[in-house]
Amino acid sequence: MSLSFSSSSLTVSLTRELSSSSFSPATTTRSFFYRTRPACSPSSTITCFSNSKNHLARAIELAKELVAGQRDTSASVAAEANFVKQLKLKNLVPAIIVSVQITLLLPLVGPWDYSGSYLSPSAMAILYSPDTKVPRTGEVALRRAIPANANMKSIQDSLEDISYLLRIPQRKPYGTMEGNVKKALKIAVDQKESILASIPAELKEKGSLVHASLINGKGGLQALLQSIKEQDADKVSVNLASALDTVAELELLQAPGISFLLPQQYVQYPRLSGRGTVEFTIEKGDGSTFSPVGGESKKTATIQVVIDGYSAPLTAGNFAKLVMDGAYDGAKLSTSNQAILSDNGADKNSGFSVPLEIMPSGQFEPLYKTTLSVQDGELPVLPLSVYGAVAMAHNEVSDEYSSPYQFFFYLYDKRSAGLGGISFDEGQFSVFGYTTNGRDILPQIKTGDIVRSAKLVEGQDRLVLPKDREVCSGSSLPPRS
């Protein structure tokens, strides 16, 4: 059933639907109406739970009064709570939802939960935001992309949950945080042999030291547990970041190479079997200066990008080879609202026409020449919806291939994103890395600025080059532009 009322300043829509699982059988009294208002929004929702036609009629009456301005909107919910204070809910509860959209100068008081307790708007925003667990920094995205031991991933998941719990304002759930750390500690101690067994023999000694640091180090799990017991949110945040860095370090030792076999038709492409770091030196094209945060203005600025061969070995490999060949030295940059794009390299020795390469979350190998359907719940391991993401542009001949040369920095802006904060272009490009240092420089780059130099400062030993530039049969495009 659906019903709506409206006026110049107020719109009320009424929907009734059955729910057998959203609410448990109640043996205690509950309020009949409650209202929530999302943060930073003048919208207000009044919700009514009842299996009575009388209550439905009363809800409609209330809605009409609100529209007509006959009821004080700021006090209406509290008044109606007394209307059915003794109401007891049963297993199947018809839910009557009265949504009130009000354009007032002053927002309505609220929100409350349906037990009568007050919830701050910021708490509601954190707990029910659809993009709460989408990685929003390159560091988080890169950490999640490491193909590590299952025990280490369990430790990582437990710790990352704490980072979301820390966002809850006011009374933080320190008890839940403590339980998460104890769970991680138990895995780290009980599964030590399994964790270290995943590390190659030549790295085993280093792995043992990192494992010990994870448990008892200055920023380890024991220190994190103590800061939680002290209920010091600042210390918890610092120790949590340190513990997650140590987790990532141990996971990288467990994943020294690509964890899947490349399709036979792509084995002659350059590939990066792990991580690499590219350092860009950017120069202003108009002679002006960059102003890094906390630093002096300079004519050049440095940006570091970590490229990921675990999830995009061909794309990262081709890019790394181009960097080593000096192909981007002197490249001109152009900017738009959401990207910094290199030139197309038409006058340079370009690289391979690498197929579109995207690894979906939950999968163990990339898809080639295939985009993802975000609408159907498909998300990549390396999301584009991160400020400073680095991806290849599409090939001019076919969108099933990436450009052999042209790349871009993605300037993610949630205000221009779709549902859940996901970019409208998510799953359409080969993302292969993230800006980890110099993100504050990206918005200062303008059209005409120049890449003075690009260097592969880490990962040369993980770059596997083909014996020749011939591509095995199966590729519909030539290996170079």
Textual characterization of the structure:
- By secondary structure, the chain is an alpha+beta fold.
- The protein has eleven helices and 17 strands.
- The chain has helices at residues 53-68, 76-81, 121-128, 138-144, 150-165, 174-190, 192-197, 204-216, 221-229, 233-254, 313-324; strands at 2-6, 10-19, 33-36, 43-49, 93-102, 271-272, 275-283, 300-308, 331-335, 339-342, 357-358, 367-368, 389-394, 402-410, 430-437, 450-458, 463-464.
- The strands form four sheets. It has an eight-stranded antiparallel barrel. A five-stranded antiparallel beta sheet has the order 1-2-5-4-3. Strands 6-17 form a two-stranded antiparallel ribbon.
- β3 and β4 form a beta hairpin.
- α6 packs antiparallel against α9.
- It is globular, with a radius of gyration of 27 Å.
- The termini are far apart.
